[in-house]
């Protein structure tokens, strides 16, 4: 799914109207009724007995609010409308005013006289924001944010620009949920905006497909619909050699579980064979913990030193639980230099930390190697950033300069490729913020690489499958008790789900 800017959204809206032969009010009515239905479905328990306040602006976002108010009233709900006093309203906003009684108008300095509890729908501004809101707006935004009930926003939290990072003290509505039209917006995906965006849901309002196709963008939101064509089913004549052989390289005394989890995840993600390359102390752990894996031992008991790994593996996942002992660093550096140019690599955890501390090693990474840093590891690699947008710019520059793929982990993990494209993931949940989840991701992506997926596809698909397995696991154990092993147990559901969708 594409992520578009405000100018592009305007074009797509207009072309939809032209191509469908409808007028703009009809499109607004359609969009609004989709929000109304979603609100009734999601919040029936609240709105069936408590009042709904809708705060509307002078543009088309306000027009949506007026339409939603009418539709909810027609369905019997108790709705109060507050509309900004203005010299000019958009035409569809005016049309919708004419179809509604009991509108209360307000000025910026007024008391909005909101109900004490219930439900508030924020329709002050959508994608038409041209700059951040000035301080004149503080009173209005504060009254909305002080509302004691549930606050939801239509299209955008009002005051948040489509492609900006908001600050804590800015005049921006803090929505527990945002219903956004047709496309996710960049600002909704940035972790620093999470105070304004509790969660968001994209509502399909049927905008013109051809018009959307024409819009160029470097930002995408990854959903099942764009992955089902990527995921391959297995041919009847395939054998284990068809699906590649992954080497998981890592482990040290006390951190062998990381290798166990990456190894299991790799095989569960479809590669034909998996070998763990570990220090001696991990032998029993691996052989007993996961008998399907083969094991190669380093000469050292407690850490990796030799890196005597043949180069006939189809992909390598390196770094999990590996530690940064001096001898490990030396051995790892020599091994990197020995790699064939077309080797396929995933680097995680200590492999990343070693590279941050020994930058000269970067040049030995084969092009399109995949690096999977969490925020702290990313900082060590690319340096400090001012805000989430700056982080993306720095990540793009790093990826381009070194011809590497970065997977920036977190909620809505972002995959950045050397061409400067960014793919935000849509799956996963906060239950995944626990130890070992990253090891599982390394196993999944290495496995996909070994199976012949190109590096970008392996990263995008792997991150999606990882989050999806986390979501299936959450359905069984909830977020609090979710651990990495649960996620591995649900990899099968994640793959089956995606394969079913493509049939
Ligand atoms: N055009 C269409 O066909 C559709 C539009 N829709 C709705 O229309 C919205 C966009 O509507 P508009 O383009 O009218 O924009 P908005 O309703 O977001 O607001 C624009 C108004 O805010 C003012 N404004 C902008 N920045 C300001 C600032 N910093 N301080 C004070 N005032 C400021 C502008 O002068 C303008 O009057 C979408 O977000 C969506 O909610 C939906 O109804 C779907 C269909
Ligand atoms: N709030 C969240 N929502 C979705 N995914 C998350 C969230 N928090 C963490 N994750 C995912 O869990 C994984 C954690 O990886 P990492 O921090 O490397 O863990 P570890 O080092 O403990 O294995 C990443 O893939 C990340 O995207
Ligand atoms: K809004």
Automatic annotation (TrEMBL):
Database matches in CDD domains: YXKO-related
Record-listed (6S)-NADPHX binding positions: 60-64, 126-132, 155, 258, 321, 374, 439
GO biological process per UniProt: metabolite repair; nicotinamide nucleotide metabolic process
A Pfam family the protein falls into: YjeF_N
Catalyzed reaction equations: (6S)-NADHX + ADP = AMP + phosphate + NADH + H(+); (6R)-NADPHX = (6S)-NADPHX; (6R)-NADHX = (6S)-NADHX; (6S)-NADPHX + ADP = AMP + phosphate + NADPH + H(+)
Gene Ontology molecular function: ADP-dependent NAD(P)H-hydrate dehydratase activity; ATP binding; metal ion binding; NAD(P)HX epimerase activity
NCBIfam families associated with the record: yjeF_cterm, yjeF_nterm
Name used for this protein in its record: Bifunctional NAD(P)H-hydrate repair enzyme
């Amino acid at each position: 799914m594409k992520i578009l800017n405000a100018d592009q959204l305007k074009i797509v809206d207009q072309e939809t109207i032209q191509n469908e032969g409808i007028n703009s009010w009809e499109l607004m009515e359609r969009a609004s009724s989709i929000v109304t239905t979603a609100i009734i479905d999601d919040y029936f328990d609240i709105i069936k007995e408590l009042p709904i306040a809708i705060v509307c602006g002078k543009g088309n976002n306000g027009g949506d609010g007026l339409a939603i108010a009418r539709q909810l009233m027609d369905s019997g709900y108790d709705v109060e409308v507050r509309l900004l006093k203005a010299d000019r309203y958009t035409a569809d906003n005016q049309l919708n005013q004419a179809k509604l009684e009991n509108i209360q108008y307000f000025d910026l300095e007024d008391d909005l006289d909101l109900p004490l509890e219930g439900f508030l729908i924020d329709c002050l501004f959508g994608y038409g924001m041209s700059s951040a809101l000035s301080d004149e707006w503080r009173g209005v935004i504060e009254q909305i944010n002080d509302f004691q009930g549930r606050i939801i926003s239509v299209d955008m939290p009002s005051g948040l620009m489509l492609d900006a990072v908001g600050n804590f003290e800015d005049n921006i509505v803090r929505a527990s949920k945002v219903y956004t039209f047709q496309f996710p917006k960049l600002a909704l995906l940035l972790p620093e905006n999470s105070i304004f965006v509790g969660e968001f849901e994209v509502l399909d309002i049927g905008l013109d497909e051809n018009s959307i196709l024409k819009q160029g963008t470097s930002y995408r939101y990854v959903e099942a619909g764009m992955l089902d064509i990527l995921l391959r089913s297995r041919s009847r004549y395939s054998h284990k050699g068809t699906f590649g052989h992954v080497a998981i390289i890592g482990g040290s005394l006390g951190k062998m579980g990381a290798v166990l989890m990456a190894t299991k995840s790799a095989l569960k993600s479809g590669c034909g064979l998996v070998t763990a390359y570990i220090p001696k102390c991990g032998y029993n752990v691996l052989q007993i913990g996961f008998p399907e894996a083969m094991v190669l031992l380093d000469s050292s008991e407690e850490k990796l030193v030799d890196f005597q790994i043949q180069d006939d593996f189809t992909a390598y996942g390196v770094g999990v639980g590996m530690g940064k002992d001096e001898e490990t660093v030396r051995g790892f550096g020599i091994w990197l230099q020995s790699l064939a140019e077309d080797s396929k690599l995933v680097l995680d955890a200590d492999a990343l930390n070693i590279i941050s501390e020994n930058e000269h090693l970067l040049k030995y990474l084969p092009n399109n190697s995949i690096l999977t840093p969490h925020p702290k590891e990313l900082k060590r690699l690319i340096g400090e950033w001012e805000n989430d947008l700056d982080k993306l710019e720095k990540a793009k520059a790093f990826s381009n300069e070194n011809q590497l793929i970065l997977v920036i982990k977190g909620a809505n993990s972002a995959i950045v490729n050397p061409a400067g494209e960014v793919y935000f993931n849509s799956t996963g949940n906060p239950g995944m913020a626990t130890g070992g989840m990253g090891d599982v991701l390394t196993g999944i992506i290495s496995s996909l690489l070994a199976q012949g997926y190109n590096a970008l596809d392996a990263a995008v698909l792997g991150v999606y499958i990882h989050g999806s397995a986390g979501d299936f696991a959450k359905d069984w154990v909830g977020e609090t008790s979710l651990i990495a092993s649960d996620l591995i147990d649900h990899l099968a559901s994640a793959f089956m789900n995606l394969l079913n969708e493509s049939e």
